[in-house]
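ok so I'm stuck.
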Amino acid sequence: MLNRIWLSFFFIAAIASAYQWLLLGNHAIFSQLIDSLFNMSKLTVELAIGLVGALSLWLGIFKIAEHNGWIERLARLLTPLFQRLMPDVPKNHPAIGSITMNLSANALGLDNAATPLGIKAMQDLQTINPKPDTASNAQILFLVLNTSSVTLFPVFVFVYRAQQGAASPTDVFLPILITTSCSSIAGLIAVAMVQKINLLHKTVLLYGAVFFSVIAALLVYFVTLPASLVGEQSALLANLLIFSFIIGVFASAHRQKLNAYDLFIEGAKEGFEQAIRLIPYLLAMLVAIGVLRASGAIQLLVDGIAWIFASMGFATTFVDALPTALMKPLSGSGARAMMVETMQVHGADSFAGRLSGIFQGSTETTFYVLAVYFGVVGIKHSRHAIPCALVADGTAIVVGTIEAYQFFG
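replied:
not stuck anymore, here's the structure
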């Protein structure tokens, strides 16, 4: 599956480039493609270098958390749920704790923390994978939950909107929360249908009720805040929680008389080695994404969608925000650039400007996450991971558009 998708990016780019050259007279298209190849190669190394520090930091902290018992206690708390969702994962396995930490970091909008924690979770799951080169059911479910995970605090979307002159940068908070929740549910249902997971079991329903109660409470709290304070308070809460976790891990290690420094160094060394191993996988995915974008294939798709909806008499105001939605599964930086470009052209408070913010804050970069998480453990066969993740991405596009019309249309 991954091989076919990767090759298809290049073949689609080739067809789109031929169209640009032969029919539109764009003689610079092949130069743009080659520039994209080298630019993405350079970006790969820059991302890997940036990841070295974050991965070393968090795996160092996680090594301490493993030895002081925090991960084990967190795993025990969530074991009943994951026994239903991931029956192949043994009771109280360390993977449950690392999965929880990753999903929590994603929910809090802490991308720098989420990636190394997700890599740790994937490595833990790999220790019980009977086919090391093929994604297990548990790894697929984790990947889909990760790419579609609920984002409670999309602070960076607020920051970009503020920079582009939005009158109320946080007015997209509620639509993003609704959209990302629906995306996560759709991804979970897609995986459950393939893997025959019973989501109506009382244990799953109980944890779901608690989870959505917390979301509802946070939603009520932030809705009652003045718009000017939502971004500030969400950033404060997110950073306070993560720093409290770090201090708690250190304090617990000190109380148990563990050598926290040596444990941190041991984990940091592992993080450095893993970041280096990621480079070939990142390179393969990023160059494919780069040529797809440079070829104009995405813009051709957007124009085609606009023509279809216009011919049926539907409004096409949402189409101007689609480049952000279509780029998000491929490239986080590309999607951010598309969002900013949309706000610059149409205005931060335009319908397209707001909708692009909703798209940006509702899902993760599916193919980047897949390349990193599967690449670090050497998985070559992704099975149904990509289709299920794309179901979540598609749901985010549909629901995000509907919510944008409800709130701003």
